[in-house]
Amino acid sequence: METTDVLVIGGGPAGAAAAITLARGGVRCAVLEGSPAPAWKIGETLAPEARQILAALGVWDKFQADGHLPSPGNVSLWGGDEPVEKNFIFNPHGNAWQLDRAKFEAMLLAAAGSAGARVERGVAAQAIRRVADGVGGWEVAAADGKIFRAAWLVDASGRASAVARQHGVARAALDKLVAVHAVVPAPESDTDARTLIEARPGGWWYFARVPGARRVFAFLTDADLLPDERQWRTAEWFWRQAEETNLIRTVLSGWSATSPARSSGPERAGTSRSTSDAPKLTSAQSARLATVYGDGWLAVGDAAQSFDPLSGEGLFHALFSGERAAQALFENFSGRVDALADYAGLSASLWERFLRQRAAAYSAETRWPDTPFWQRRLATATSPVQAAGPNASR
Ligand SMILES: Cc1cc2nc3c(=O)[nH]c(=O)nc-3n(C[C@H](O)[C@H](O)[C@H](O)COP(=O)(O)OP(=O)(O)OC[C@H]3O[C@@H](n4cnc5c(N)ncnc54)[C@H](O)[C@@H]3O)c2cc1C
After folding, report:
1. Ligand 1: which of 32, 33, 140, 221 to mutate, most ligand atoms within 8 Å of CB?
2. Is the pLDDT at 273 greater than 60, yes or no?
3. Of 8, 24, 199, 298, which is least packed with CB atoms within 10 Å of its CB?
């Protein structure tokens, strides 16, 4: 049995940020990360504001050396037929970044290890229970049979909210948003690192270039608005939808004389389509736990609250909340009784701000009031509406 003071469940950006901060502050902690090796994940644009947190975590130099692509801004076709460009020239934090996500997460977990956290890769927490033997704390049984004990748990398990859900904390979702996405090789001539966003009658698209000469394409819609799975899982269906856009079609037409719709997938720079081009589905719901902390635990990142990808703030929030939660634990350990409640208050104010931005962004698109996707968005846009589009980092 392994014992530690704080056990972080999940080694994504939120868990790593919490572990780095705890370990640097001298707290004995361990991270359990279910996946055995860093892997590609959807979610690639890091907002400029993340720079200050990466610096505070002591990883800014490492981050810069890892070959992520500086992104000067985004272009959106949203609420009208003319593309609108937003760039980061006046952002005091500089540009955004298109990440090699696997490298980014590997760097953060390595930094947690260097700071003194014990990092257990390929170890998924399975049964999470309160210990009732007088010692108190938690016992976590991993899928591989290992047992861990800790006084505190940090739930950094992403949308799974593994700790909170096992303890009956409800997670309420605002919508049924999903992303159908594919990552494909792009020709070397395609050097545009901006994020391109386009509203469509049934949802919206984004696509972005990432390191390694690849592009991520994602179509966001509600799960119940997708056709039968046998259809949407095919590259044919996905690229046919892409062909109906304006921005994506323009980019793809520059890649090859062969139409993606006709070839059922982009014929990139002479590369033929592989089965890995088949689209995948990921939940993209805006959702939040009923409470982000309780007796001996607190939640960070997507485990606490996950934002519509339109906000472009998920990664920033993951890093920020991981760091803030660790600070709240330090304060709690040194006897400040309100520290965790203050952390919860901060989470609530970030959620309120996100709701206002989400309402404003979706309300700015009024071209398809009769389609279910936009009817639902317009119905839930309750806040005062300003002319807006996708947020600065999207
Ligand atoms: C379609 C889409 C596009 C997005 N685009 C962007 C974007 O461009 N910019 C942006 O900022 N954000 C984006 N996001 C959001 C962003 O990806 C998330 O907010 C971010 O990954 C949250 O980080 P996290 O560490 O909280 O969770 P995650 O990154 O989900 O990490 C959780 C980790 O916990 C591990 N885990 C889960 N359960 C267990 C367990 N039981 N035991 C051990 N380990 C476990 C998982 O393996 C995982 O590594 C996007 C999201 C979606 C769905």
Report:
1. 33
2. no
3. 24
Residues 6+ apart with CB under 8 A from 180: 218, 219, 221, 226, 232, 238, 279, 280, 281
Q: pTM (2 decimals)?
A: 0.93
- SS3 label, residue 287: strand
Measured by CA distance, the residue closest to atom 35 of ligand 1 is 10
Ligand 1 atom nearest residue 35's Cα = 47
* Predicted confidence (pLDDT) per residue in 304-320, tens digit: 999 999 999 999 999 99
Distance from Cα 368 to the centre of ligand 1, integer Å: 31
Cα first-last separation, the chain: 45
Same domain, 166 and 211: no
Structural domain including 203 reads 177-283
Q: Tell me: do 169 and 294 sit in the same domain.
A: yes
Asked whether the beta carbons of 163 and 155 are under 8 A apart, the reply is yes
Looking at the structure, do residues 20 and 40 belong to the same domain, yes or no?
Answer: yes
Q: What is the tens place of the pLDDT at every residue in 342-373?
A: 999 999 999 999 999 999 999 999 999 999 99
Could you give the 3-state DSSP secondary structure of residue 232?
helix
In this structure, are 24 and 161 located in the same domain?
yes
